[in-house]
Structure formats: structure tokens, C-alpha cells
Amino acid sequence: MSIPGELERARHLALAADETSAKELLLSLMPRIEEADRDDLMLEVLAQLDELYLVRTAYEGVREGIRRIRECLAVYASVLDGTAAPDVIDRTTMSTDAILHMTCRYGRRAQALEVGLLAALGDHEGAAAALVLLDGMASGEWSAPQFADLASEHAYLGTLARIQCAAALCEDDMHVKSIPLWRSVIEDVDTGSTGEDDDNLFVLGAVGYARFCIETGRLAEAEPWLQRAGARAQARGWDLPVSRTKLERATVCWARGDQLSTERLLMEAYPVIAEYARAHDVSRCWLYFGLTRMGAGALQAADESWEHAERHWRELGRPLHIHRILLQRSWIAIIRGRFQDAIDMVERARACLDESPRSSWVAYARLDDHLGTVWRSDALADLGFDGAGHADDDWAELEARYRASLGATHAEPGSPRFASAMDKLARAADLKVPAALAVDSVRYSITDAEARAQWAECISAPMLAGAFAVAWESENTELVGELIEYHSARGTFATAEAPGDVDWSRVTTAPAPISDLEELAQVASGPRIDTGPSLTRLGPLPPLAMDPTAGPVLGRYRRLALERYGQHVTTDESAWTTWP
């Protein structure tokens, strides 16, 4: 087969996710291309290899490939402007038009690779700037009539780069900033075209957008995209994309509480995902395997599953995912009664957040809430909770106790163990209550009622429920009353929308922490707006006073929320009195 034919075959292999065969074929072509002295074909080999390296996270290889492409193009640019050495000009056999065409094509390819590399490395600002430059390559000298044959390839590169940027933003919980990109992607891929490149873009875009929808609570919107992506991939015989759609469908089933369907889809997807060695997707499979096994009471199997997930994410060096799996694994330590091990895992998770430049105050608040859960669990063990494990239990004893637990406690008030439990519950309250108040304050910035309800259900409600639980279990009636007063007030009505509310409201439905919530919380913590008679939006509460002889409710916990997370839970208005 001719060299161009072999290059086309390598591209087919890459689209089918057979990167190993594609790489071997491309490397085998290099000696032939060097012998033929065809720089244009060598640039094609480098571009395809870089695409493979990017998929397989071999980022140093991508950097080297981009450098070599640009160095080669720079030599030809010097030939065109006459600044090259005479011997270089003498050896050049390509026409001016051919050089311009090659420079245009592979300049764009190198720029698209740079966008993908920067996005994969988490340099989202750099990726956005590089994407602007890529888009600009469709204008000026690049759009001359003789380059019209490259228009479709440039459109392909632009859409692919947007998919990569949007997916990378979601990986770092920056769902808000990915929305404009996803809007562009779904418009570009849903054109009805059925070429191989078109199908590849559609599958990548549809799966990525569906995952975004799942992570932001739009389950019904995700399913049609997954079905269509799976059908296209199946028609092409692309096994890996088919399995990736099954993995995302499994996450939908888990979100809906359908454990059996989750397990079935995972069992169908995992063998192919493991065969193609996609470490991130392999880790996600193990995460959900662990969840389904824990739901069935198989604690040892769940712990082993999460251990596999953690190992793969550590190999990839993804601190946000490592921190989440550490928190997940700490549940096993809690159930086993090994509370110090659980605390150690939480602190290691905190170190991962510290390491990540994309960590948010919301992530730290949820981490503190979980640490409070560890202390609460330790306190319940002191109270004789019948589901608490013993550190020396084997797995069979632990799982039997876990399944048989009725949730009962038995401890004599006034006993040493009771006193120890009260101390631990107080410590848990100091962690859980400020975190819950800070996160709940965000809902006042959400103008859309459905999105506000989703935020409350996925984020605020579980954390507030935990705060109520530790207050009740610690027999702190004053704190229970103040939480009831705070929760009953619900909020105020403001008469105008705060700047920036409308564009940000719908994205707050995400069940994962979002780093952009600092901007939402700034609106939530500001003073109530009063510019007219109509009541148009929910607003934050002023301080509440329920006792004429005491200060506002939850004052100490509100100060802790401000100190730890920078969140003003109430406005700076005068306190409202809650008595007649």
C-alpha cells in the first residue's frame, strides 16, 4: 500500500481506539518517508502520533511532536520570506502554493494539539487563549481560495478542541465555564452528517455532553444523547465508545437508585474499557462497582473496588478524583470502627485539595462535613450503636453486623462513654454546622426555582440534615431550636435580580462541588436589594433573633462559616425578631 494509503489506515485505527496498532504503523512509515524526502508526509505522521499520545496521556510526547512540527514549518516560512540559508533554499523542491498549503494545514493541526494539551493539563485559561488563535486561523491569509479544501478539516479541529476544553473543565468541576463550549459543540455535531470524522465528533461530543448533563442533574436530557452516540458507534463497530455510553448509562441508573441496572451495565462495559486500558474510565467503573457492592452489604468487595480506583487515579495524577475516592474509602474505615484511619484518609484528601489549583471552598466545606461525620460515627460507637464495627472484626463478622443493624444505641447517661460521645458530637457539630450553613447560603443566588430545588436536594439538604442530626444526638436543644428557626425562615424576597444571576442559575444543579460557586455565593451573601414593589427573587436572610436576652441565632457557627469558607450566611441588616 502507498504511504498516503497507510496513513489513512492508521487514522481508521485511531478512530476505532486501536492506538497501539496505529502507533506501530505510523512509526514503521517514518523510514520510508525519510527516504522519499517528503516533509508533508512526515508532518502528517507527527500530527497523528501526537493525537494518539494526547489520548493516552503521554503529554511529553505531545509537546515534542508540536515542537517538531513547528520547527519544520518555521524552516519553510524562512524559505518563503527569503531568510533561509542558500543551501536550504536550493534543496527545496516544493512550489510556493504547496508550501503555503502545508503550512496552513499543519499550523492548524499543531495549534489544535496545543489546545488539547493545555486543556488536559488543567491550564484552562491557556487552552481558551489557544482556542481563540485556532479559530482565528480561519480568517486572513488562511482563508485564501486555494485553501478551501482545508475548511472542513479546520471545522473538525475546532469542534474537537471545544470538546476537549469542555470535558477538561468538567473534570475540574468547572461546569459553569463549560456551558458555552457545550452549546457550540452540540450545535456543531448534530448536523446529520454521517462521515467517519462526523461520527467520531458526534460520539465524542454526545458522550461528553451527556456526562455533563448527568453531573449537573439533567438525567432525562443525557439519555437521548447516549442512545444516539451508542447507535452511531455500534454502526461503525467502535467497541470502546459503545462501552463508554454504557458506563454513562450506568451512572444514570445509579443516580436513579436502580442498582441492578447499574451493575448490569457496568459488567457489560468494563471488559472492553479495561482491554483498551482507559485508566480514567477504568477507575470510574471501579468506583461504581464499589458503590453497588456496598449497597449489597459486600463491604470487603467494595473496599477492594475503591482501592483499584484510587490506584489508577494516582497513576494519572488527578488530585480531585483522588480526594473523592479517599472520602469514599473512609466509609469502610468508619463502618469497621477504625475512626483514626478514616480521619487519616480525610486529611490525605485535604492534602489533595491543597495540591489542586482548581479546588473550591465548597469542596473544603463538604470535606469538613465528612470529617464531622467521622466524629459523629465515633460518638455513636461510644453510645453503643449496634451497627458500629469493632476494629478487630474480620470481614464476615463486619458484614453480618452491617446487615443486621437496627440503628439502635444503648448507653447510660452520665457514664464515661456517654460523656465521651457528647464531646465527640460537639466536635462534629463544630465541623458540620458551619459547612452546612455556608453551602446552604448559595441557594439564595439561584433565580430558577427548579435549579434552586435541585441544589437544595443534592447539596444543602444532606448537609443540613447532618447538622440537625448531630445537634439532636448531642442533646443540644438550643442548637436544635436555632437550626429550626433558621430553616423555617427559608429566606427573603428581593425586588430585583442581582447582576450575573440569570446566566449562572441553572448550572448550580451539579451534585459535585463547582469551583465557580464563589461568584454565586458573593451574590447570596450580599444585602437584600429593594428597588420596587414587586417580589421577584429569593434573597438571603438577615440575622434572626429568637431570644430578647441573647444575640442572633447560630452566631458562633456563622462566624466559623465566614472564617473557614469566606461565606456570609446572613446579610448585614438589622436582626429580625422571631417573637410577636
TrEMBL record:
SUPFAM superfamilies assigned: TPR-like (SSF48452)
Top-level taxon of the source organism: Bacteria
Name of the protein in question: Tetratricopeptide repeat family protein
